[in-house]
Amino acid sequence: ENKLLEVDNLQVSFHTYAGEVKAVRGVSFHVNRGEALAIVGESGCGKSVTAQTIMKLIPMPPGKIKKGKVVFDGKEISKYTDRQMEKIRGKEISMIFQDPMTSLNPTMKVGKQIMEGLIKHQKMDKQKAKERAIEMLRLVGIPNPAKRAEQYPHEFSGGMRQRAMIAIALACNPKLLIADEPTTALDVTIQAQIIDLMQELQHKLNTAIIIITHDLGVVADIAQRIAVMYAGVVIESGTVDDIFYRPQHPYTWGLLQSVPRLDVKEDKRLVPIEGTPPDLIAPPKGCPFAARCDHAMKICKEQFPERTEIDDNHYVHCWLQHSMAPNVKNPIIEER
Ligand code: SF4
Ligand code: MG
Fold first, then answer.
1. Where do the ABC transporter domain residues begin and end (predicted)?
2. Nearest Cα to 249, choosing from 193, 294, 214, 196?
3. Rounded to 5 degrees, what are φ and ψ at 118?
4. What is the ipTM of this complex?
5. Count of C-beta atoms within a 10 Å radius of residue 121
6. Percentage of the residues of the chain whose pLDDT score is greater than 70
7. This prediction's pTM
């Protein structure tokens, strides 16, 4: 089968003193083998919680999967115990984070940290693991890999540390790499280099990637498909072209207008979306974007919009798709 990962109607909550925070409220998507999917949305939209749930990295309690399932390579891993997950993590699914310093061990040489997974999962002997570690450092574009393998994380620059993280993540040749804001902490030039590197490795190793970001601009080159999340739900998903050239959801319009772009006049760039996302302890029963949407109608506040298929693989949840809705000009299509 071509489908590597399937997330089906996933609902994840956190039980807090203030009440039940419904962080993920029925999210569905899939990732094919070797494909890159971007999950895009503002902070707090549930994208990281979704990723951490796939990896079983959220503490339960206070977290809880209320509904839905995660199927990876034919296995329903959302039912796995921590012990079973240990065997998957780092071997079949790896994850990298925004800040390598929080996931790299500051007291262990970088080469050793790459070797750990190889010894644990691939049962490699030390010598072989060491050779592979150096090969991985070379593969991620770190000069003098043999010397670098003997150094500690603090001797690496930010960009080099992120490369080392990628080397650790990919050492066991996982089928899926989940990258949560992998370039957010880096400056723009280094960001582009890391994205290029991930794209190169995706092709070379045929690794599927889920890249999670608040910045749509980052994913245009690397992703084949994009899922846009808002307030714990996917409000629109489609191919990169669907989302960049034919977006249908007002929130996606807003995201696109807040991406710095060179092909649009200065005064049209970087329009922030006004307002804040809803409280996920008491989420609105209608469209979660209604309070911030310029086109909100009466029904938007009353009923969650059903999924409309715009095209193969292009879906949107918005009442503007209803045949009775007024005709609203699509600002993204208009300006091109
Ligand atoms: Fe705006 Fe209504 Fe569409 Fe929500 S459903 S995005 S409020 S028009
Ligand atoms: Mg996050």
1. 5-256
2. 294
3. -65, -40
4. 0.96
5. 19
6. 96
7. 0.94
Q: Residue 283: is the preceding peptide bond cis (ω within 30°)?
A: no
Nearest atom of ligand 1 to the alpha carbon of 294: 1
* Residue of 229, 251, 318, 330 to mutate, ligand 1, most atoms within 8 A of C-beta: 318
Give, for ligand 1, the residue of 287, 308, 321 to mutate: max count of ligand atoms closer than 8 Å to Cβ: 287
- Compute the mean pLDDT over every residue in the chain, rounded to the nearest whole number: 92
Please name the helix (run of DSSP H) or strand (run of DSSP E) that holds residue 185, with its range, or none.
Answer: none
Please identify, by atom number, the ligand 1 atom nearest to the C-alpha of residue 295. 8
What's the burial of 284, exposed, middle or buried (CB within 10 Å: 0-12/13-18/19+)?
Answer: middle
Q: Under CATH, to which class is 3-99+176-273 assigned? A: alpha beta
In the β-sheet with 75-76, what is the strand arrangement from edge to edge? 19-32, 3-16, 63-72, 75-76
The answer to whether the CB of 183 falls within 8 A of the CB of 97 is: no
What is the SS3 assignment for 317?
strand
Residue 200: CB partners within 8 Å, gap ≥ 6? none
DSSP one-letter string for 271-304: -PPPS-PPPSSS--SS-TTGGG-TT--HHHHHSP
